Automatic annotation (TrEMBL):
Cofactors (names): a divalent metal cation
UniProt lineage: Eukaryota, Metazoa, Chordata, Craniata, Vertebrata
Comment on bound cofactor: Binds 2 divalent metal cations per subunit. Site 1 may preferentially bind zinc ions, while site 2 has a preference for magnesium and/or manganese ions.
Gene Ontology MF term list: 3',5'-cyclic-nucleotide phosphodiesterase activity; metal ion binding
Name of the protein: Phosphodiesterase
Binding site for Zn(2+) 2: 565
Active site: 524 (proton donor)
Gene that encodes the chain: PDE6A
Species per Swiss-Prot/TrEMBL record: Esox lucius (Northern pike)
Xref: Pfam families: GAF (PF01590), PDEase_I (PF00233)
Record SMART domains: GAF, HDc
Length: 909
């Protein structure tokens, strides 16, 4: 193959540029580019002498720097090589890189690469953080460039007003000319690059400025790549810090010290520091007064240093300063300037503090609760803004997490206070050992303790009362302790004492403590609680409803009846909500019912009162479940929801021909048993309305008295007008309200129970009889009002006739009308005056005196005697409240009727 002459080939390629380009791209470009990025490729640029660079040599420099950027993971190394090439291009004697940063809110420039030239080594030019030179922005040419963000070319530094020679004095170097330019990231300052002293010329030229700006884009690229990589790593660290600290913070909630230690120990690898410390601001320690005595006596000078907000000494260096000022501090020089920091080794290992970052830990209320300090960044550099961001996020999160520890601590203290108050309450309620002898006087009678007595001996001590099994049981003739004894006797009659191994002393203490747990109020007192328990006992035994329940069920149901109103306050659920009572905030619905339930459970949790202590775990859970249902069922709002379900059960019972089959079916249906039990609780709670009239009429006045007391509270405390049922000025409407209560609330439950079991019919019969009595009083009152109105009309006509006779004329229809109006007005005025006087004479406010007598001394009840005095039975009831209270000296408190109380609850619901 003939050899082609070089000149001919060049001439051909010059004449055919398209062919030359296609041939070059196909044959040589891939190989050339591959060779450029080979790691072992050496630079072909000769930097031994300065000369004008050809385009080929300049491209070699650029590709050389790109390859360094690819291989180097350190920003300083890549920038160093770039600056070496640049110093060669612009023939600068030395070049330096100053990084822009913020320290404690102040902008500054710090040396990172110093005195770079074409023959320099990285180790010589890289500035260690301990030896860096820092320029504030208001000093030197560098500060001027960073402030103006413009390139400056100063031929003679001595002629510049911004020139500062303190670096020349340190380095023993003479600066003649300077070329400096800012490196920007958008509008943000990143660094300042400076070249000093042009080689072979008095100053840098315009061409040097253009070369510097041209290559500055590449420097920007290098810094941006490494900056973005650094930000990515920082965000990754920040995410890991928050994630891991969150997992540990919520593991430990009992102690803030352990909480912080766990969180920081887990994330120690992400903090990028050698050591850290956390100082907690202790605001719990109380000041000792005896520490002030030497100061007050003049024996010791008063302390005038920094103090905590509560006045205690706080002089512990940097953490104290940060806690006092609330500032983020970093940099060893700045910190040393503010406060003393140990400059030598801090321990035997020889570890020395080189740089420190200290931040306050702030809680949700923006109060400083601690100070976190981080020492010696691992790579030797000072802490920067990203470190501050990460640590600030951590401390902010830890500050917020303090809320968990504080909340737990407050909750723990409240729990302890609750236990203390509960212990105080139990001390006054709980039956002591010596008090058991008030109920079971076994020492005087048998000379031994109750647990040593036989069953026959205990039964002889307990009250024998055949009416305990009757629906018409009356507690009026029994004392407080008699009712306790009857309560104990009910458990014996149920046969549960021996069957479930209930300790005799425990049963006695429980019943007596239960009676003491009821407040001595007008109606919802121990007498009412016992009556409900006795009615439940009677429904089970006499009403033959026990056929559906086990002995354990019966025990739970009687206990629920006795406990159902313990610690009642004499006011209803609506009043608790209106007055903002803590009970209303604690329980969302059935407020008082849930309180009674929890109070009963509290008594049963005491080992000395727990009559369920010998039950198995499943049995104990079962009786507590039944008590929950039974006591909550006394809320009449729930009663109205269950009436239809109960009616269906009664109807279904009529479809069975055999009682045994129906009983077997009911025993297997837990839900139906619970519905019947809930309705039994309602029947027991309202049982006073089904007592004989002599009992019910007195109880109704007790109910009304308690209602009027609540009405007085609403009028005085809440400043609201009470509903008519609780307004003592509407006392005359009591018979009418009782009739409505019987018709709309009580009649259903007793009619259905009478259909369900005929043995319960006596309760319905007495209910209907009481309805007749109340209706008769209502009609008599209405008739008397009508008679009074008729009498007024007659008096008006007579007065008109008298006036007409005096005038000597016959009275006309107009005279009768006019006279009627006049007389009506004067008659009403007279009525009001006489009524007011009657109020002062008679009065009728019911209140309790030492739990044994009830008096009527209220001021505003003008109509009560208007219809009651001429009716024999009502006269005995209304006018003898005071006498009845005196006659019943054994009775602790005046009884009231649950029926009216629950009418109010149902109407409000």
């Amino acid at each position: 193959m003939a050899v082609v002459d070089k000149d001919v080939a060049e001439k051909f390629l010059d004449s055919n540029p398209d062919f030359a380009k296609e041939y070059y791209d196909a044959k040589f470009r891939p190989k050339v580019i591959s060779d450029l990025f080979k790691d072992n490729r050496t630079s072909q640029v000769n930097t031994s002498s300065f000369h004008e660079l050809s385009m080929f040599e300049e491209s070699e420099i650029i590709f050389d720097m790109v390859r360094d950027l690819q291989n180097n993971l350190q920003m300083e190394k890549a920038i160093f090589k770039f600056m070496k090439h640049l110093s060669f291009l612009i023939r600068a004697d030395k070049m330096s890189l100053f990084m822009y940063r913020m320290r404690n809110g102040t902008a500054e420039l710090a040396t990172r690469l110093f005195n770079v030239h074409k023959d320099a080594n990285l180790e010589e030019c890289l500035v260690h953080p301990d030896n860096e030179i820092v320029f504030p922005l208001d000093i030197g040419i560098l500060g001027h460039v960073a402030t103006t963000k413009k390139t400056v070319n100063i031929p003679d530094v001595l002629q510049s007003i911004h020139y500062s020679d303190f670096v020349d004095e340190i380095q023993e170097y003479k600066t003649k000319c300077v070329l400096a330019t800012p490196i920007m990231n958008g509008k943000d300052m990143v660094a300042v690059m400076m070249a000093v002293n042009k080689i072979g010329a008095p100053h840098f030229t315009t061409q040097d400025e253009e070369t510097l700006k041209k290559y500055l884009n590449f420097a920007n690229l290098i810094l941006r790549v490494f900056h973005l990589s650094y930000l990515h790593n920082c965000e990754a660290r920040r995410g890991q810090v928050l994630l891991w600290s969150a997992s540990k913070v919520f593991e430990e909630m009992t102690d803030i010290e352990r909480q912080f230690h766990k969180a920081l120990y887990t994330i120690r690898d992400f903090l990028n520091c050698e050591r850290y410390s956390v100082g907690l601001l202790d605001m719990t320690k109380t000041k000792e007064f005896f520490e002030l005595w030497p100061v007050l006596l003049g024996e010791k000078p008063p302390y005038d240093g920094p103090k905590t907000p509560d006045g205690r000494v706080s002089d512990y260096g940097l953490p104290t300063y940060v806690a006092k000022e609330g500032l983020v501090t970093s940099g060893i020089r700045w910190v040393t300037f503010l406060c003393s920091v140990q400059k030598g080794p801090v321990d035997s290992s020889g570890w020395v503090i080189k740089n420190v970052l200290s931040l306050p830990i702030v809680n949700k209320k923006e109060e400083i609760v601690a100070v976190a300090s981080f020492y010696n960044r691992k790579d030797g550099k000072p802490f920067d803004e990203q470190d501050e961001t990460i640590m600030e996020s951590l401390t902010q999160f830890l500050g917020w997490s303090v809320l968990n520890a504080d909340t737990y601590d407050k909750w723990n203290k409240l729990e302890n206070r609750k236990d203390i108050f509960q212990d105080m309450v139990l001390y006054h309620i709980k039956c002591r050992t010596d008090e058991t002898q008030n109920v079971l006087n076994t020492r005087d009678r048998y000379g031994k303790e109750p647990h040593q007595c036989k069953e026959e001996e205990l039964e002889a001590i307990l009250v024998n009362n055949d009416s305990l099994f009757e629906f018409h049981f009356c507690d009026f003739e029994h004392s407080h302790l008699d009712l306790v004894k009857l309560g104990i006797k009910m458990y014996y009659e149920l046969g549960v004492v021996d069957k479930f191994h209930v300790p005799r002393e425990t049963l006695t203490r429980f019943c007596y403590s239960l009676s003491k747990g009821y407040r001595q109020i007008t109606y919802h007192n121990w007498s009412h609680g016992f009556n409900v328990g006795q009615t439940m006992f009677t429904l089970l035994m006499t009403g033959d409803l026990k056929r559906y329940y086990t002995d354990l069920d019966a025990m739970a149901m009687v206990t629920a009846g006795l406990c159902h109103d313990i610690d009642h306050r004499g006011t209803n659920n609506l009043y608790q909500m209106k007055s903002g009572n803590p009970l209303a905030k604690l329980h969302g619905s059935s407020i008082l019912e849930r309180h009674h339930l929890e109070t009963g459970k509290t008594l049963l949790r005491d080992p000395a009162l727990n009559i369920y202590q010998n039950l198995s775990r499943s049995q104990h859970e079962h009786v507590i479940h039944l008590m929950d249902i039974a006591i909550i069922a006394t809320d009449l709002a729930l009663y109205f929801k269950k009436r239809t379900m109960f009616q269906k059960i009664v109807d279904q019972s009529k479809t069975y021909e055999s009682w045994d089959e129906w009983t077997k079916y009911m025993r297997q249906e837990t839900t139906r048993k619970e519905i019947v039990m809930a309705m039994m609780m309602t029947a027991c709670d309202l049982s006073a309305i089904a007592k004989p009239w002599e009992i019910q009429s007195k109880v109704a006045l007790s109910v009304a008295a308690e209602f009027w007391e609540q009405g007085d509270l609403e009028r005085t405390v809440l400043e609201q007008q009470p509903i008519p049922m609780m307004d003592r000025t509407k006392a005359a409407d009591l018979p009418k309200m009782q009739c409505g209560f019987i018709d709309f609330v009580c009649a259903f439950v007793y009619k259905e129970f009478s259909r369900f079991h005929e043995e319960i019919t006596p309760m319905l019969e007495r209910l209907l009889n009481n309805r007749k009595e109340w209706n008769a009083l209502k009609e008599e009152h209405e008739a008397k009002l009508a008679a009074l109105e008729a009498a007024k009309v007659t008096e008006e006509e007579v007065a008109n006739a008298t006036i007409a006779a005096k005038q000597g004329r016959t009275p006309t229809h107009a005279d009768r009308q006019t006279g009627s109006q006049v007389h009506t007005q004067t008659g009403r005025q007279a009525d009001r005056q006489s009524g007011t006087h009657a109020d002062r004479q008679t009065g009728s406010q019911v209140h309790t005196q030492t739990g044994s007598q009830v008096h009527t001394q209220t001021g505003r009840q003008p109509h009560l005697g208007a219809w009651g005095t001429n009716h024999t039975k009502w006269k005995k009831t209304t006018n003898s409240i005071h006498l009845w209270g005196q006659a019943k000296s054994k009775r602790k408190t005046l009884r009231t009727d649950w029926s009216i109380s629950e009418t109010m609850n149902s109407s409000e619901a």
